[in-house]
Each structure stands twice: as C-alpha cells, then as structure tokens.
Specification:
308 residues, mainly alpha, MetI-like fold, 14 helices, 72% helix, disordered C terminus
C-alpha cells in the first residue's frame, strides 16, 4: 500500500503545472553582443559625419577656424543656413540654393509620376497579359537597366538638340523618365507576378478588361511597390548631378549642381559652415521622404525583389 501511494505521489508531482516552451534567451548572449555591437559601430560610422555637418553649420566662421570639428557650437547661429539658401554664389548668380530647389522640384515630380505610371502598366502587362514578343521586350528592358549612363550621353544630346529641347527642363524630365523605366518595370513585373493569379482570372471571367483590372484590382493592392518606386525615383533624380549639368543650362540647374558650385568655389573665403548647411539642405528632401515611408519601402522592396 505504501508503494502504491508513493507512486501516486511521484506521478502527481510530475503532472504539476510548470513553465513550458523554450528557455528564454539571455539579453547579453554572445550572439546579441556581436549583433548589436556591429549595428552600433555601423550607426556611429554613418552618424559622425552627419553630426559634424550639423554642428559646423550652426557655428560662425571665427568658431569654425578654431579647428575643433567635434565640439558643439558655443553660440548657435542660423546665418549659414540663410546664406546657403538665399545668398550664396552658385556661379554668376548669388541667390543661393532657392532657385535650384524649385528647379529640382519641377524636375523630380513629373519625372517620378510619369515613369511610375508607365512602368507600373508595363510590369502589369508583362506579368498578366502575355503577348507575342513579351519576353524579348522584357529582356531589352533588363539590359537597358545596366547600360552605363555615360555611354548614352552623347546620343541623347544629339536627339534632344534635334527635338529643340536640349538645355530645357522638359528635356531633362524626359531623360530621367526613360532611364528610370527599366528597373521600375522589373520591380512592378515581379510584384504583380506574386499577386494571387485567381484574382486576375476571376476578374477576366466577370468581364473586366485590361484597364479595369489594373485600376480596380492590381493598383489598389500594390501600395508598397508604388512607395518603393517613388523613393527610388525621388532619391535618384533629386541626387543626380551628371544629367543636371549635361542636359540643362545654368538657369535650370538642379540643386545638386548648385551645391557643387558653392562647395567648389575658389573665390573669396572658404565658408565651411555655409557649405555644410547647403549640403544638408540639398539632402533633406530624399531623407524626409524615406523616413516618412520607410516601413512601406522595406515591405515593397522585399516583395518586388523576390517574387516572380
């Protein structure tokens, strides 16, 4: 009897509720230390130049000449920012980056909208509406995405000159739109190919045509890849220097070309605080766009890169 009772007690002790599942990981495990240590070093590596730019742009020139680039400003001044925006000489004109900013806006907005609209339709057609020669067309687009820009500069100059739009904003908008098309078409094609095919077939059975399916089904489901395309185009077009200096005249120079003229000026005193402020102003727009829509960018780039 005592043996039976001891067995029952042992069984009951084994059946008592206790912690289940995996053992929780330690916060200071070697893996976490290596991971977060690497991320911290990378963050410091990229943040130090930004910190130097910001603190230098808030100093006056007497304080800049002291040479301690890492020290915070003893007296904060926004005069370098004002001068960079409206007074710095960018060539023959001394009206700062303001004119270049509006030129960049006039170049970026239509180039981005047109290239995304056309590339999304191209990708949708290549993914869902196979036609004769579609694979050849897609191959040509892919090859075009990897042709160096420098190879195409002179032929494009000739074409734009013959069309009478060389040196104008219209010509530069066309160039950016065309060069953005191949990679955007690839992204949209891969994304649309990864959407459930049953939706497309059901819409076809219900009598929906090419544009109805695109506008009512495909486009509303593709917000992440549209955000990716927008960020890629805005970043690439806004930061472009080569096309801006080759295909436009001084009065139509974008912000990056004017920044180069400010930083590389050889006349007068080298105002490092103004240069830093001008650099931050020039890079502010793509940074703001990315931080506002960064989460959708990561989702969309992952989907558009691996599906298809």
């Amino acid at each position: 009897m005592s043996d039976r009772s001891s067995l029952v007690a042992a069984s009951a002790s084994r059946l008592q509720p206790g912690p289940a599942g995996r053992k929780p990981r330690r916060m200071l495990s070697p893996r976490n230390i290596m991971l977060y240590g690497t991320l911290l070093v990378a963050a410091i590596y990229y943040l130090i130049p930004l910190y130097v730019m910001v603190v230098t742009s808030l100093k006056g020139m007497p304080e800049v000449r002291l040479g301690n680039i890492f020290s915070p400003p003893l007296e904060i001044t926004f005069e370098p920012w004002v001068k960079a925006w409206s007074q710095a000489c960018t060539g023959l004109n001394c009206d700062g980056l303001s004119r270049g900013f509006w030129n960049s806006v006039l170049i970026t907005i239509p180039s981005t909208l047109i290239s995304i609209a056309v590339a999304s339709v191209n990708g949708y057609a290549l993914a869902n509406w196979r036609f004769k020669g579609s694979e050849v067309f897609f191959t040509i687009l892919i090859v075009g995405a990897f042709i160096p820009y420098q190879v195409m500069i002179y032929p494009i100059v000739i074409v734009l000159r013959e069309l009478g739009i060389y040196g104008t904003l219209t010509g530069l908008i066309i160039v950016h739109t065309i060069f953005g098309m191949p990679i955007l078409t690839l992204l949209f094609r891969n994304y649309f190919a990864g959407l459930p095919e049953e939706l497309f077939k059901a819409a076809r059975i219900d009598g929906a045509g090419f544009w109805a399916i695109y506008l009512r089904i495909m486009a509303p489901m593709s917000l992440p890849i549209f955000v990716v395309a927008m960020i890629l185009q805005i970043t690439g077009i806004w930061n472009d220097f080569l096309f801006g200096v080759v295909f436009t005249r001084p009065e139509y120079y974008p912000m990056t070309v004017q920044l180069n003229n400010i930083v590389n000026s050889v006349q007068g005193v080298k105002e490092y605080n103004v240069n830093m402020a001008a650099t931050i102003l020039t890079g502010a727009v793509p940074l703001i766009v990315y931080f506002v829509s960064g989460r959708l960018f990561v989702r969309g780039i992952a989907a558009g890169a691996v599906k298809g």
